[in-house]
Structure formats: structure tokens, C-alpha cells
Amino acid sequence: MPFPQSKIRNFSIIAHIDHGKSTLADRILEVTGALTQREAREQFLDKMDIERERGITIKAQNVRLRYTAKDGETYQLNLIDTPGHVDFNYEVSRSLSACEGAILVVDSTQGVEAQTLANVYLAIDQGLEVLPVLNKVDLPSSDLDKTKQEIEQIIGLDTSEAVPCSGKTGIGVPDILEEIVKKVPPPKGKEDAPLRALIFDSWYDSYRGAMIMFRVVDGTIKRGDKVRFMSTKIEYEVTELGTFTPHAASLEEIGPGEVGFLAANIKSVHDTKVGDTITHAVSQNHKPANDPLPGFKEVKPMVFAGIFPTDSSDYPTLRDALEKLQLNDAAFSFEADSSEALGFGYRCGFLGLLHMEIIQERLDREFNLDLITTAPSVVYHVYTTAESTDTMVIVDNPAKLPPPQNIQRIEEPFVKLTVHVPQAYVGAVLTLCQDKRGTQLDMTCPSADRYIIVYDIPFAEVLFDFHDKLKSVSRGYASMDYEITGYKPGNLVKVDLMVNGEPLDALSIIVHRDRAYNRGRGLAEKLKEFVPQQQYEVAIQAAIGGKIIARETVRALRKDVTAKCYGGDISRKRKLLEKQKEGKKRMKQVGSVEIPQKAFLAILKVDQ
Ligand SMILES: Nc1nc2c(ncn2[C@@H]2O[C@H](COP(=O)(O)OP(=O)(O)OP(=O)(O)O)[C@@H](O)[C@H]2O)c(=O)[nH]1
């Protein structure tokens, strides 16, 4: 018998980054007896190493809990933890699609921030019941009245029953559980209808193949059932069904309204698609559903960079690793690419810089690959002077920009940027946005000492160091969120770098013409810092369309690493040579000069 839907509550926790989602989620696990105190202290839900180190949540995790409420009934709570960073909004909306309610965590020492609002809108759009809670009440700077006022004025949610709580001490957590039972509506799937289950996550397990996380909407799925993925029409026999409690637990069946995972010896990562609907294959007992569930909006990568193996024999391993990562992360894309400077590799698409860094780290850690990543770029729409009707080309790699004489105009992506900031820093934020080619759209002051500033600004300008700069001009008080709005023409040019006359295609950038000279000079100076001295002079030049705009010279020097060794200490000498070899791993030969990986990333740090 499936679990009665009237006793199921599916909910997510949403918040601005660092407002305490993961801590609260762990505390909920502890209060319901799913975790021991020790496990809870270790932040169980943030499983991946990278997450734990950086203290951020990347992949949504979900857990099934049993909770006996004050009404004496036992409920099944399915808790979906969601990431808070703007790069991962798509994961938030996916997780929300498996829920009927969301707990909105607001840090009562900080109040409503940019991503509080962005996340709450995602939940409201999906028709979820939103329950605000006021977190971190254990801190002396907690201000419940001000936080409630902001939630009411900025978001428009009633806070008369908002629970004050602390994920740290556990205060208020039992009240939150009661609120969930009382206010989150139970699922209303059709028990007797053909099976329809929504895939909202998947990952790769080296023993069991592709694993799928899903929410059953109608019908029931059982172990041994033959199921069909509606978009690909491929059929598999379910070998394993389960849920996380939070430890993985096997199940015989998963009924309407429930969440769980399945394994089915799915070897090809292309057979499973997040957003697809699972139904039954035709059999004596089962009839497939006619219509799939509405899937998800496809997420398009917004930022592109080249990833190249330092050792070209790693190329096939890199492909395999990228495929596996893609299964776990639908927003990540890649295609084969080649560079004159770096050889064969892949052009990869990401949602933002944090997303890119995480993929890079996972490739490094989980697959032990030595890689060079090029400077990231946004996607440009380039209108050429070609006579054909289709004159727009999409350029996600500055090296592929057509020659200037063939370009009619270049359009770049713009975002609507929203910044929340206290009054004292409004001036500094306006100057920063202006400096980044922004146009002010709106400025409001919805509550005492909180301004909301909205700008129309090129995506390329917010992509790189904007967040760091915003934090520094506002002493950490400003928060931001952005959404892509569309494309507009810009006066853009490509700046190329050359080392001893050899073009470094992987370092080309597209910038606004007004900044091109400064950027070119800055890039050449920066690159000089990273090019190791050689036995001959090395010229570093920056050029716009063939015209040299800057030149730096790395003086010749013969560096003998063993010079320090005297007295013929062979083992020490060998060690030094070994060390030097190690350091060379992350270098790339360009003509006769080796460029270290650091140089590629340092390009981003050049003041724009
Ligand atoms: N004093 C106090 N600190 C808290 C409380 N809840 C969370 N914190 C701290 O706030 C910081 C952020 O908490 P997390 O739970 O990692 O925040 P999050 O919202 O999950 O952050 P992301 O996963 O990065 O989105 C951590 O240092 C926590 O220890 C609380 O109730 N009281």
C-alpha cells in the first residue's frame, strides 16, 4: 500500500546565501531523529568535499523523514535542500517542482537580501506555500521586528506566524515542523492513473550506472517494473528503488506524492534527461501515460571557456569525465575545440564563474586531470557583412571572432542587476555600476536604511570581479542578483596577445573599445609577470586587429636551479630537478615559451 498522500509533506528550504539553510536542514534531521548529533554537527547534507570546504551548497540533496506531529499522526516529510548561489538558480527551481511548500529562511541579523527575493519569486511562481522563518535568533544582533517588517514590505508575505528560530541552538525547530504539517498542502496525485514521475536530478555511480532522482506525481512505481523515459522512449527494468533517510535505504515501491531514486543499469548517460517523465512500458498490468509532465525550462550556459589537458594523452579521459559531470549537471555543456596555442580540448559552457570553478575543481579532484582553462567569455552575437540572409554568428570564443572588416556590429548580453544596500554605501554602488557601463533603471527605499538599486548593465561587466568589488565598496553589506534580459549592440573589439610573435589565441578577449588600450597594456604587463625568464629575450605584445598597442619584454636569464647545490650532493640536486619538473606540469608550450596555467587565470584579475 502506498503511503497515504494526506500524510506526505514535500518541502524545500530557500534562502539568501549564508542565511543558514544547511544548518537548519541538519537540525531538522536531528530533531526528527534521522541523524545523530555528531552527524548533524558535520553538516550531513553538504556531501561534496568542495561544498564543505567552501561552505556552500551546490547539488540539491533530498531526505525522507518520519515525523510524529502534535496531532499524534505520523507524517512523511520529504526535505529538499537547495543551493543559494545565483549561478545555481536552475537547481532551485527544479527542486521546487518536487514540492508543495518552501521554508523561507531569513537571517534576522541581516534581513531580506537580493537572493532572498529571487528565490522567493521562484517559489511563488511555482505556486508553493511559503513559510517565512527568522533564523539566527541566538545572536545578539538579531532584530526580529526589522526583519519581519522587511519581509512584509519587500516581499509582501504575512509574518504574523513567522517562527523565530536558530539552526545553531535548535530553538524554534519543532515549531517549524508543526507549521510544515499544518500549512504545506499534501500532494494530490492520482493513485490509479498511469505512472508519471518527474526526473529532477541524476548522477553517475560507477557500479550502478546512471542514478535518477524523481518525484512520483501519479501512479506507483515498483522494483522490477519495466519503465519508459517519455522523451527518449527508451525502456529499462528498475533494479533498485530507494530513498535517503539520509542514508540510502532500499524500497519496494514509491507511490504518488513520494520522492525517491532508481537504478536500472543505465549505461549511457544520454538516456536520462532531467525534466523528463518516467512512465510504465506497455505490459499486461500497465498502461503508459499519454502526456508527459511539463518539464523544465532548458538552462543555457552563459559563460564559456576552453578546457585543455596539459598532457594530450589525457584527451579521451577528459571527454569521459566531462560526460559524467554533465549527467550530474544539465547546465554544463561541452564540445570539442582546438587551439593553436593549447592543442585539442573542449569548449565548455557554464552558468557563471562559480559554476566554472566548481567544474574545474571536480575535474581536478575526482578525475585527477591536469588541465589548463582559458579566460571565460560571454556569448556574443556578431552580425557580419556577408550578403547571405543569415548574417548573425554566435561567438562564445573571442579567438573565433571574424576579422574586423567582416563585422557589421557586435551585440553583447545585458542583465538586469539588482543590488540591495544600506544607505551609507549607495553612492559607492552607483559609481561602481556607472563605471561598469551600467544604466540606472530604478532606485527604491522600501524600508529604513535599505535601498534597492536596479541597473541595466553588460553581463561581461558583472561576470568577472563585480561581486568582489561590490562587497569591497559596501564593506560586505551589499547583496546582488541578476537575470539576463537580452542583447544590445556595443562598441566592442578583440584584443590579442602574442608571445615572441606567436599569437596566444587562448588569451584573446573581447572588450569595449574605450577600455581596449588599457586592457591590452594591463594584459601584457600581467603576462610578463608569469612568463618565466628564458635564455633569450621574450617579447609580449598586445594588438587590436593587427595593430600593436603594447609591448613588454621578459629579459633573458639562464636559471640554474641546481646552482645552490654545492659539494656534489646528488640526492638534493635530484630533488630540485624533480621539483622543477613537477612545476612544469601545468605549463603549456607556446612556440618556444612555456606559459603557466596561472597566467590564463590572472588575465581575469586585470582591472577592467
Ligand atoms: N549563530 C548562528 N549561526 C548560524 C545559524 N545558522 C547558521 N549559522 C552559521 O551561518 C553560516 C552559514 O550557514 P549555512 O547553513 O552554511 O548557510 P546556507 O544558507 O546553507 O549557505 P549555502 O549553503 O552556502 O547557501 C555558517 O557559518 C553557520 O554556522 C544560527 O542559527 N545561529
TrEMBL record:
Q: Which residues form the Tr-type G domain?
A: 6-188
- Any idea which positions bind GTP? 18-23, 135-138
Assigned GO CC terms: plasma membrane
Q: Annotated Gene Ontology MF terms?
A: GTP binding; GTPase activity; ribosome binding; translation elongation factor activity
Under InterPro entries, the record lists: EF-4 (IPR006297), EFG_III/V (IPR035647), EFG_V-like (IPR000640), EFTu-like_2 (IPR004161), G_TR_CS (IPR031157), LepA_C_sf (IPR038363), LepA_CTD (IPR013842), LepA_IV (IPR035654)
Q: Which domain of life is it from?
A: Bacteria
A biological process (GO) of this protein is:
positive regulation of translation
What membrane topology does the UniProt entry give?
Peripheral membrane protein
Q: Which family does it belong to?
A: Belongs to the TRAFAC class translation factor GTPase superfamily. Classic translation factor GTPase family. LepA subfamily.
Q: What is this protein called?
A: Elongation factor 4
Could you tell me which species this protein originates from? Labilithrix luteola
